[in-house]
Structures are given as structure tokens and as C-alpha cells.
């Protein structure tokens, strides 16, 4: 008996000892994740620039790092996630100007929209959400440190980072300096020592939005904000840095260079995680291309937060994911199918599912985790109570909410039954007429083998 108990304990211990694997953009390898401190994890994620309501691409990034946050919390006692708000930027200033509203009213409003939309996707709030405008002092201190250590220079009111002062410049993007200059199409200002040198501080007119600094009235460069805020909340060395693949260069490369130079001997972030793009017809969704759909628009067109989340999880986070009606409809169908099974059982009890944990620990293999949910759902449908408990736990862990069962009015069901009979009798004219009647009452009828499914429109 004691031997049997020991074996059971050993098996559960081994199951809980799963390693987390992550694709690290810095080493270009999938690696076992070892935090600096064995019980705690520090993670920084680049957050939104708040000038327009978040689009579906922004939300993909939010969901990817939410899954990582949830996974890390399952393995470590203490996980600190910092996600910044970029509330000073030329795009923000221009947008406020064109709408004739104050900059801080715009950024406060858009930050609220971001919170609302991301909360509907069941993303957990980060532990700290620092705003750039309230960390100007920390940015100035870091810039001063860079000037003191000869990694930055002051010219014509600008402070620029001297890329030639850092021999590892390019280690993250893995490109030569020439390639980086060409790729970034950096503005080659005549006062730059090297075309790749980037702005830490730039001057602006006294009447423009800005801040006082040792170099005069001006505004910080974008990259310094993440370096200063990660240092303020996580210290010089931390575990994970996340963001979209578009940020790898120049944003993350520059963050890495200036942080290492400002904090001599530090490695800055050790694991760099980059999510792939959400695309539209194969092209990156972006505000500048104008091919974006906001999260709000998608929710209002009838796809709730869990359906959108399911859609994101169908594809590995590093791969591109195309947004189209079919993909969203498929996600909705899948969530409905799983939810229908849960409703048939009456159990509120849950049990951790090791398979789902193992799939997620393998570099967040969410598509395998979803496939496992469907296996659990079919077992659950056949009355397997254990599978049902694991399914409930897995849905909760992945942040997917069971969809409420739609109550279809009796008169609609009656017409649908009459239509089924008409179809069986090959009376297509009557079947079409009844379909129209169903649609006029706000429902959609979908034909299955020898039956139908009804769904509310919108
Ligand atoms: P932004 O508000 O543009 O600074 O972006 C906020 C976050 O969303 C960053 O991590 C971006 O890399 C990410 N992001 C922006 N567009 C996309 C996209 N089309 N697909 C995936 N992530 C994106
Ligand atoms: Zn950043």
C-alpha cells in the first residue's frame, strides 16, 4: 500500500516537474526556461501606444503574453508582469491635434478602451502598468548615465546613442550594421556620427508638448521608455521580454543596447519572445496600412471575447494568423460545441489537466492544447466525468468562458421542424419559404446531415 502511494506521488511529482520551453529570439533557439531566481519570474511586455482603439493585431499580442503569464503563474510562486503604456509619441500628438482635444484626454480615453477590450478577451491585468509620461525622470537619469559612460552624445539639443560604442549592437536582430541601417530606413540627420545612432532625447519648440530636461525642452525617444521602466520595476536583469515581431528591430535592439550600456555588466532580458503578426489577406494588420479591424468591431459583429481568444489560440504564437470571417466562424462553432458538452453535465468540479499544461509548456503550443480540449469534450459527452472535470479546468486556465446555451423560442423550432419535413419531402420551395420566415424572426438555420442547427443572427 505504501509502495503504491509512493509511486502515485512520484508520478504526480514528475508530471508537475514539466520544464517550460520558450523560443528565444536572442539565442535563436527553443530553450528550457530557467529564471534568474528559482521561485520568481520577472517579465516585461511592450504595451500599446494609446492613440487609437486597439485593433485585432494588438490584441493578439495581449493574448499571447496573457497565456505566458498564466503558464508562469502555474509554475512559479511569484510572477511579476510589467506592461507599459506609451502615452507620449508623435502619433498621439498629431491625433489629439487633428481632433482638437487635449493630449491627456485622448490617452486616458484610449487607455480605458484598451483596458475594456482586453478585459473582454479575459486577459489578466499586469502587475504594473507604467505610463511613459510619469517616468520622464527615470529616462533622464538613464540618458545621463549613458552620456557619462560615453555611450551617448549631445548634439543640437538631441541626445543620441552611439551604436559604435556597443560591440554587440545587432545581436538580437542578428543583422550587420549596414543591413540594419537599410532595413530601418533611419533618418540620416547630418549631425549623427553614425546613421544608425538613435534618439534618446529630442528637442521641441517651447509651445509644443514636452518636458524639461538637462538638454532643454523636449521629448524622450521611444526606446528609452521601455529601458527606463523595466529598470524601475524589474531591475537591470530580468527574465522575459515580450512584444510583436515588428518590435525586434529597431525597438528591442535599441532597448537591449542602451540598457546593457547603462547598467554595466547586466544582460538585460535573458529570454526574448516575439509573437507573429495577425494578417489580413497575408498582410500585417496595422493602423498605418488602414487594413485593421478593432476588437470592439469584431465583438459587435457577434464574436464574443472567448471566441476571439479561441481564434488566436488556433495558431502557434510565432506564426502569422490571418483574420477572416471563416476563421472566426470556425472558432465560434468550436466554442459552441465544447460548451454544449459542458452543459450536458452538471459538475462544477475541476481537475488540472497535465496534457494541456504540457502542451503549453512546450513553447505555448496552444493549437495542441485546443485539440486536447476537443478530445476531452468527446469523452465528456460519452459520460466521462473525469474528462469533464479536466475540460472545465482547461477552459478556465486558457481563459475561455463556456458559452451560455441559447434558448431558441418554440415557434422558431416549430418552423424549423416543418422545414426539415419539407426538405425530406423534397419540397424545396416550401423549405426556402420557411428559411426566410426563420431569418425574418432573427435566426439563421444551418443544415446538417439530416437535421439542422439554429443560431441567433448578430
Ligand atoms: P502598438 O500599439 O502599435 O505599439 O502595438 C502594441 C503591441 O501590438 C506591440 O507588441 C506590437 O508588436 C503588437 N502588434 C501590432 N500590430 C500587430 C499585428 N498585426 N499582429 C500582431 N501583433 C501586433
Ligand atoms: Zn517597448
UniProtKB/TrEMBL annotation:
Residue ranges constituting the tRNA synthetases class I catalytic domain according to the UniProt record: 34-332
A biological-process GO annotation: cysteinyl-tRNA aminoacylation
GO cellular component, one term: cytosol
UniProt motif 'KMSKS' region: location: 284-288
InterPro entries linked to this entry: Cys-tRNA-ligase, Cys-tRNA/MSH_ligase, Rossmann-like_a/b/a_fold, tRNA-synt_1_cat_dom, tRNAsynth_Ia_anticodon-bd
Binding residues annotated for ATP, in chain numbering: 287
Keywords: Aminoacyl-tRNA synthetase, ATP-binding, Cytoplasm, Ligase, Metal-binding, Nucleotide-binding, Protein biosynthesis, Zinc
Keyword Zinc: yes
Binding-site positions, Zn(2+): 46, 226, 251, 255
Cofactor comment text: Binds 1 zinc ion per subunit.
GO MF term set: ATP binding; cysteine-tRNA ligase activity; zinc ion binding
Catalyzed reaction equations: tRNA(Cys) + L-cysteine + ATP = L-cysteinyl-tRNA(Cys) + AMP + diphosphate
UniProt cofactor(s): Zn(2+)
EC number(s) per entry: 6.1.1.16
Pfam families linked: tRNA-synt_1e (PF01406)
Localization: Cytoplasm
Broad enzyme group: ligase
Major location category of this protein: cytoplasm
Source superkingdom: Bacteria
Family: Belongs to the class-I aminoacyl-tRNA synthetase family.
HAMAP family assigned: Cys_tRNA_synth
Subunit structure: Monomer.
Name by which UniProt lists this protein: Cysteine--tRNA ligase
Native species: Midichloria mitochondrii (strain IricVA)
Gene: cysS
Amino acid at each position: 500500500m505504501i509502495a503504491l502511494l509512493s509511486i502515485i506521488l512520484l508520478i504526480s511529482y514528475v508530471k508537475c516537474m514539466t520544464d517550460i520551453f520558450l523560443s528565444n529570439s536572442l539565442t535563436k533557439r527553443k530553450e528550457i526556461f530557467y529564471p534568474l531566481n528559482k521561485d520568481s519570474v520577472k517579465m516585461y511586455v511592450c504595451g500599446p501606444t494609446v492613440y487609437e482603439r486597439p485593433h485585432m493585431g494588438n490584441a493578439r499580442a495581449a493574448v499571447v503574453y496573457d497565456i505566458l503569464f498564466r503558464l508562469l503563474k502555474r509554475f512559479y510562486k511569484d510572477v511579476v508582469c510589467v506592461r507599459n503604456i506609451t502615452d507620449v509619441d508623435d502619433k498621439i500628438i498629431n491625433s489629439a491635434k487633428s481632433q482638437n482635444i487635449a493630449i491627456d484626454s485622448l490617452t486616458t480615453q484610449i487607455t480605458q478602451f484598451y483596458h475594456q477590450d482586453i478585459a473582454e478577451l479575459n486577459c489578466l491585468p499586469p502587475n504594473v502598468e507604467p505610463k511613459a509620461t510619469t517616468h520622464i525622470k527615470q529616462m533622464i537619469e538613464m540618458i545621463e548615465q549613458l552620456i557619462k559612460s560615453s555611450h551617448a552624445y549631445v548634439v543640437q539639443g538631441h541626445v543620441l546613442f552611439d551604436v559604435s560604442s556597443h560591440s554587440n549592437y545587432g545581436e538580437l536582430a542578428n543583422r550587420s550594421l549596414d543591413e540594419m541601417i537599410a532595413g530601418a530606413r533611419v533618418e540620416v540627420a547630418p549631425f549623427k556620427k553614425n546613421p544608425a545612432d538613435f534618439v534618446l532625447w529630442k528637442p521641441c519648440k517651447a509651445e509644443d508638448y514636452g518636458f524639461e530636461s538637462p538638454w532643454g525642452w523636449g521629448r524622450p525617444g521611444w526606446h528609452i521608455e521601455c529601458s527606463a521602466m523595466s529598470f524601475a520595476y524589474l531591475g537591470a536583469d530580468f527574465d522575459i521580454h515580450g512584444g510583436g515581431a515588428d518590435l525586434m528591430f529597431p525597438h528591442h535592439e535599441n532597448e537591449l543596447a542602451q540598457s546593457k550600456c547603462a547598467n554595466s555588466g547586466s544582460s538585460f532580458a535573458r529570454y526574448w519572445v516575439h509573437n507573429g503578426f495577425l494578417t489580413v489577406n497575408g498582410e500585417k494588420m496595422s493602423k498605418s496600412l488602414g487594413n485593421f479591424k478593432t476588437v470592439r468591431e469584431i465583438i459587435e459583429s457577434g464574436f464574443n471575447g472567448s471566441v476571439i481568444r479561441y481564434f488566436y489560440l488556433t495558431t502557434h504564437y510565432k506564426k502569422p494568423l490571418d483574420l477572416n470571417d471563416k476563421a472566426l466562424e470556425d472558432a465560434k462553432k468550436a466554442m459552441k460545441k465544447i460548451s454544449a458538452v459542458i452543459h450536458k453535465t452538471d459538475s462544477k468540479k475541476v481537475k488540472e489537466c497535465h496534457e494541456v499544461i504540457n502542451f503549453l509548456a512546450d513553447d505555448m503550443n496552444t493549437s495542441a492544447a485546443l485539440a486536447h480540449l476537443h478530445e476531452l469534450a468527446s469523452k465528456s459527452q460519452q459520460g466521462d466525468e473525469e474528462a469533464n472535470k479536466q475540460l472545465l479546468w482547461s477552459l478556465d486556465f486558457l481563459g475561455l468562458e463556456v458559452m451560455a446555451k441559447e434558448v431558441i423560442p418554440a415557434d422558431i423550432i416549430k418552423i424549423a421542424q416543418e422545414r426539415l419535413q419539407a426538405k425530406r419531402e423534397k419540397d424545396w420551395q416550401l423549405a426556402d419559404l420557411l428559411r426566410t420566415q426563420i431569418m425574418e424572426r432573427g435566426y439563421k438555420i444551418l443544415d446538417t446531415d439530416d437535421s439542422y442547427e439554429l443560431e441567433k443572427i448578430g
